[in-house]
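REVIEWER CHECKLIST
Item 1: Sequence provided? yes
Item 2: Single chain? yes
Item 3: Sequence as submitted:
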Amino acid sequence: MRVIAGLGNPGEEYEGSRHNVGFLVVAGLADGCGIRLSAGRGDFMSGVGKIAGTHVRFVMPLTYMNGSGRAIAQVLEETGATPDELLVICDDVDLPLGQLRLRGSGSAGGHKGLSSIIERLSTEGFARLRLGVGRPPDGDEMVDFVLDRFADTERPDVDEMVSRAAAAVELMLRDGIGAAMTVFNRRTDPPEGEGPQED
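Item 4: Structure as written out by the authors:
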């Protein structure tokens, strides 16, 4: 089973914020497959289903971003999945709004959620899909920027990015991470017909 985890902060006050784009992708994937996310025995919401013939467990940690590792460790222990069966989806302020970057492993790059997961799992060996949210204007605090909601003028780009991220997950599950990296690690649209689908 593959574990697909979208990072974010729980609660209405954080809905639609830049830090919560991981939640948006997982929620969209689950909804598209008719999978209901619900609270379990751990510090997360999750749901089980199938994408591209692969059994997946969608996860949204409820620990707040800095404690993401605790929830992810709980899920891996519960499912028996290993870090190399994990994909983490999160925001990235070092990428322009709308750009995706998929990698099979790597450092946290300053992201508190990834740092928490790396520390808890004692490895950087898990895939991550970063979604570009851009950087704050000069003089604005980074914390305020990532916890703020997207501007109305940014929404079309955000919606397109979330859709492309979902398509990247589907392609990764079907054809492997290398194929998905080739298609989505550049600012182009996915091939016609690509997108999340249920087998």
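Item 5: Key structural point noted by reviewer: Residues 30 and 36 are 7 Å apart (CA to CA).
Item 6: Recommendation: ____
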